[in-house]
Design a protein that fits this description.
The protein contains 13 helices and ten strands. It has 258 residues and is α/β, with parallel strands linked by helices. It is an enzyme of class 4 (lyase).
Length: 258
Amino acid sequence: MSDETLVLSTIEGPVAILTLNRPQALNALSPALIDALIRHLEHCDNDDTIRVIIITGAGRAFAAGADIKAMADATPIDMLTTDMIARWARIAAVRKPVIAAVNGFALGGGCELAMMCDIILASETAQFGQPEINIGIIPGAGGTQRLTRAIGPYRAMEMVLTGATISAQEAYAYGLVNRVCPPDSLLDEARRLAQTIAAKPPLAVRLAKEAVRAAAETTVREGLAIELRNFYLLFASADQKEGMRAFIEKRTANFSGR
Ligand code: CAA
């Protein structure tokens, strides 16, 4: 399959839907697929007309992990020189909100990819797990850190040490997913949520995402400083003036994105 079809992109107004499209390999995240995903994400991030991005998977998986066949014979130097996993950080660095619509298996790097997104919706058929231990490695794209912050150290430790998968309902109960939807309505639910966020002033959305992310990635002191800086900064935006004036004048705000 050529690189152009590894990730399919559908644009619906301000919402981009990116579909991982390697269903015969359960969307295993080969270097080519990751590169294609990064290209699409960075394109969306730089396109002012797109405000929210949804990532989902074709077939019965969201993604069943990094491509084991591409890594099986690798040496540490191969991993280092090809930058096999480090470049995944560019996925987490996208400034616009990214919603994961997890339609099936989200295992290993697939679970880590979902956790790089900002909101996770799961189909009733989704399964989450970090099964790397079963193949002699550990999570390498953030699983030990993001999963621990998302569901707590004891549950994360059990998942990482046993490699056991959890159902969508368990993931919901653990706080890993925002909500669980019937498989047929997963994408529509993601679309609805994306459209709601897309209607908000984009500068505030961007700075809100950055501040909430800081809670998981920095100390409370640094996070509070980022929040306050972003809060003050938004008073330079036209949308802050418009949003507050519209509230006072009891009308709907007309946001310009400036
Ligand atoms: N890499 C490469 N190929 C994969 C894959 C992966 N992670 N996961 C599935 N596939 C391929 C299978 O090899 C198979 O291909 P063939 O038809 O050519 O044999 C095809 O997808 C379908 O898979 P199965 O026949 O295994 O399907 P199943 O329904 O019996 O099992 C599954 C589904 C439980 C998800 C099983 O495929 C599985 O356990 N996959 C591997 C999960 C895993 O270990 N992920 C972690 C990878 S390492 C990682 O992600 C590191 C990191 O932190 C970044």
